[in-house]
Write a structure and sequence with these properties.
The structure holds two protein chains of two kinds. Chain A is an all-alpha fold. Chain A folds into two domains: 3-93, no CATH class; 107-175, Arc Repressor Mutant, subunit A. Chain A has helices at 3-14, 18-28, 34-50, 59-76, 83-89, 107-119, 123-133, 139-146, 150-167. The longest helix of chain A has 18 residues, at 59-76. Chain B is α+β, with helices and mostly antiparallel strands. Helices cover 30% and strands 33% of the residues of chain B. Classes of the chains: A mainly alpha, B alpha+beta. The interface between A and B is large, with 53 and 60 residues.
Chain lengths: 189, 328
């Protein structure tokens, strides 16, 4: 697979499992705070990226098992120090395929969710994002359109991506049986 | 832009911020040598950086898909208003655009853009026109004050031209010149000769290799081929044209083509090749829609359509009919 095909595979087969994986990790490992979960997910993605994608039959299970290995390694290296964690590790031994599987959003639900997330972006950030993704403008055209430097456009887009990706760490509200999000994610600045 | 993505060490959120910045930059353009070095060394510093970078890139790519759904929603209720068609295509086509960091050679000075196999690349030009490059294709963009020139070096490209009668848009390919003021068309250098298909508007065709004494106008749903045997023109219906340009959306559409021809088209985008040894099977008519590069899905669909089987042979997926299955 070339780089682009791999990215598409990642977007299609891996990313949708991330909110569940995060929830699963956080729920089972009391010693993990959200930073640790970020760390485990980043490390797992790095390993998944370098793995032979064609050989992975069940991406979800592979992702969970990889994450479990990483947690185990980190415990051994004492990067995560928590007494009750070691006991909880046993809970990670079983990867239940059906556990906590959120239903996939339909296209229109995905779109609605994106619009909802965009509402929470700072205005310029959001404008740059919308010109880029909905109007398909180049950064140069966005710069002209908004009357700002191209490098500023790049910064707005990077921030927009970061904020959107932060929001996407959680399972979409619609897929969670009506449970409200209670945590606040946005860190401005 | 000249400076690197700002450096900071540390926690997951910082890593995500830097990963996002790199993802945005590498999706927009090819990184400069210095930038590439900087990115490489950042990635090498910690495997988590790679994970975050992959995540940011995949998400950024996937947002094109979600955003394109918006275009679809607007399109559905009423028949298309042809005026703004290039923009809607723009959104639809962004569906499967490969954002390959470093994989696309774009020499800004020379204006040359090339794609590899299994890759479709959209290029937004400064005047609002859009060039979409099919796999294994190359163009050179030479904009001047009074003329917008694009040279198709190899392969195939589609053009969505922003209207500007003061500044004509001229595509040359192997000595054939296609001139447009505001339209959409596809130019391909095929085995048979240069092929021009018009989706919208009118183009004028000329040039020494066109075989034409005077410029000839080609309109919507018409196709011109500058073949060695002489120029010819064909009428297509809009479904043919849609099919012809489906690659721009990252799709291959077959609608009664021969299976053998369809496989050849699939193989154009895939390292894994579909082979049909059985001539009867190769002549069978086939329908289906596939993602570019997904040879496996194609082979499986064809096998189930014709009660056949797929055998793996090295880098090939061999399609056979069940009753004719070879003994191995």
């Amino acid at each position: 697979m070339d780089h682009g095909a791999r990215l598409r595979w990642f977007a299609r087969d891996v990313l949708p499992h991330e909110p569940d994986l995060r929830k699963w990790l956080a729920g089972r490992l009391r010693g993990l705070d959200s930073c640790d979960v970020d760390e485990v997910v980043q490390e797992a993605y790095a390993r998944l990226w370098t793995a032979d994608a064609e050989a992975i039959r069940n991406t979800r299970a592979y992702l969970y098992v990889t994450a479990r290995h990483i947690v185990g390694e980190q415990v051994r290296r004492s990067r995560i120090v928590a007494i009750d964690l070691v006991a909880d590790l046993d809970a990670l031994n079983i990867v239940d395929e059906e556990m906590n599987v959120h239903r996939r959003l339909s296209g229109q639900e995905e779109l609605a969710r994106l619009h909802e997330i965009l509402q929470t972006l700072p205005p310029k950030c959001r404008e740059a994002f919308e010109l880029k993704k909905f109007q398909d403008f180049s950064q140069r055209r966005i710069a002209e359109h908004m009357g700002i430097a191209e490098s500023t456009v790049e910064k707005h887009l990077a921030k927009a991506l970061r904020l959107v990706s932060e929001a996407m760490k959680q399972a979409p509200a619609g897929a969670e049986n009506g449970k409200r999000r209670e945590r606040k994610f946005w860190k401005w600045g | 832009m000249e400076k690197g993505v700002s450096a900071s060490s540390g926690n997951g959120a910082d890593i995500d911020a830097r990963a996002s910045a790199w993802a945005i930059r590498s999706a927009e353009r090819a990184l400069g040598e210095q930038e590439q070095k900087e990115l490489d060394s950042w990635l090498a510093a910690d495997s988590r950086h790679l994970g975050a970078y992959v995540r940011a890139q995949a998400l950024w790519l996937d947002l094109d898909r979600v955003a394109a759904l918006d275009g679809g929603a607007r399109r559905n209720p009423s028949p298309p208003a042809r005026k703004r068609v290039w923009r809607r295509y723009a959104m639809a086509a962004s569906l499967a655009v490969v954002v390959a960091g470093g994989a696309v050679a774009y020499d800004q000075l020379a204006g040359r853009v090339a794609t590899g196999r299994s890759e479709v690349r959209r290029i937004a030009l400064e005047d609002g026109s859009i060039v979409t490059l099919n796999g294994n294709s190359a163009v050179q963009i030479r904009y001047e004050d009074d003329i917008r020139r694009v040279v198709l070096r190899r392969g195939e490209a589609s053009f969505e031209v922003a209207h500007n009668s003061e500044r004509p848009f001229v595509v040359s390919a192997d000595g054939v010149k296609v001139r447009a003021v505001g339209t959409e068309f596809v130019v391909g250098i095929e085995d048979d000769g240069v092929e021009v298909t018009v989706e919208e508007g009118v183009v004028a065709i000329a040039g020494r290799a066109s075989g034409l004494a005077a410029p000839r106008y080609i309109r919507r749903n018409e196709q011109f081929v500058a073949a060695a045997t002489g120029p010819r023109k064909a009428m297509l219906d809009s479904a043919d044209v849609e099919r012809r340009i489906a690659w721009r959306k990252g799709l291959l559409v077959f609608n009664g083509q021969r299976l053998g021809d369809a496989a050849a088209e699939v193989n154009r985008y895939s390292d894994l090749r579909v082979t049909i040894d059985d001539p009867t099977l190769a002549r069978a008519e086939f329908m289906g829609v596939f993602k570019l590069g997904d040879a496996r899905a194609f082979a499986n669909a064809a096998a189930s359509a014709f009660n056949g089987e797929v055998h793996r042979r090295g880098n090939e997926l061999v399609l056979v009919r069940q009753q004719n299955s070879p003994s191995h």
